[in-house]
């Protein structure tokens, strides 16, 4: 198998400090049109984390896309992956491969997403990529599934944040949003991976996303992500889950509908990979029509300019 160009990145690190091992790793493969699904999965298993594969865009349609992306974790293909999309747009910007008019439309199995690049930071390492998500759908978890869901994480209803309910939220994939009283409870969760898989199947979720509000005024929350069946137990930064969480908090009244400030979602601290995802609502005529997810990107340690 002839390998396409590969770039290993860390997406959503809390800091660009080279000494801090933050962010969610991803490998982005460019010019991946000739890879089969089996080859994509094999490359992903080799890397052990989410991978994004960039293919030609869709032509000959009403809204032709610039690129097509496919996403894999070691165990299966995903419809959408936020951090791999951010990473792919970032590396293509670094290489001068983005369209000159700044319009970036990407086809995915969950639908088309937009992206934009903010270069106001100056250097390439400070470039910010924003990727769109549609308006989220949120519903309360049925009461008969609450205890089982909490048990899979080793907690009880007494440890839930007062006034908040467990919710299933979705922009691209369903995530289960579990509000906790404080980040100390978040840190001492006792995960049962088999139980997480079982309960996720029952509640039609792709992962559990317990979170704690750290600073309501500054819109800062901390979260952990436990995927249903990705091939690893925990994820250090999950853009799609953070987007779902923003709409859950909007429904709960924590985020005002007219806010022009981002929600800051911190993740990965427990894993030693401090990460931060920014979620900003997209407003039109006073209504929320979706959101942008964004954050920092950096080369993985010792992998700068790697393009084997």
Automatic annotation (TrEMBL):
Keywords: Isomerase. GO terms for molecular function: isomerase activity. One of its GO terms (cellular component) is cytoplasm. The active site is at 50. Pfam families: PhzC-PhzF. InterPro entries: Phenazine_PhzF-like (IPR003719). It comes from the Eukaryota. This is Uncharacterized protein. It comes from Penicillium canariense. The lineage of its organism: Eukaryota, Fungi, Dikarya, Ascomycota, Pezizomycotina.
